[in-house]
Amino acid sequence: MQSSVCTHLARRMKMTQEQKAIEFASSVRGQYIISQALCLAIEKMKDEKIPMNMRESSNIADMEYLRDELFSIYKAVQCAQEGTPVPPVDVMEAAIASLNDEAHENDS
Question: What percent of the chain clears pLDDT 70, i.e. is strictly above it?
């Protein structure tokens, strides 16, 4: 077991900053941060104080697509806190599976 920890640490030390960023973005925490950024940006970009011709509706639509299809964890947490309907079960199951996988990785 110790050798696997050493191997993991040695591999981690050799990683470039870009590789570390990709690894972080793939983690549950990274997914949550990206999801939160998308949700807050969408909210801000839809602000009624911004004139319609300045809202960049195609960017908003693309961000909503990314949020809904890849980065839905923040929205799911918000729904749970607000008591509103949560996203489809398959989205939640994927998030839970990802959390379980990460927990098992941290155990080894």
Answer: 69
Question: Where do the H-state alpha helices sit in 1-88?
Answer: 2-14, 17-26, 28-45, 57-69, 73-82
* CB contact at 8 A, 72 and 35: yes
- Residues contacting residue 80 through CB under 8 Å, at least 6 positions apart: 86
Q: pLDDT at position 71, please?
A: 92
Q: Does the pLDDT of residue 107 top 60, yes or no? A: no
Split at pLDDT 50, 70, 90, the class of 83 is confident
Cα distances from 14 to residues 11, 20, 30, 85, 91, in angstroms, run 5, 10, 21, 44, 34
Please indicate, yes or no, if residue 96 is contained in any of the structural domains: yes
CA dihedral 89, 27, 46, 77 (to 10 degrees): 40
78 is in which domain, residue-wise? 28-107
On whether residue 13 sits in a domain, the answer given is no
Domains of the chain: total: 1
Amino acid at 22: I
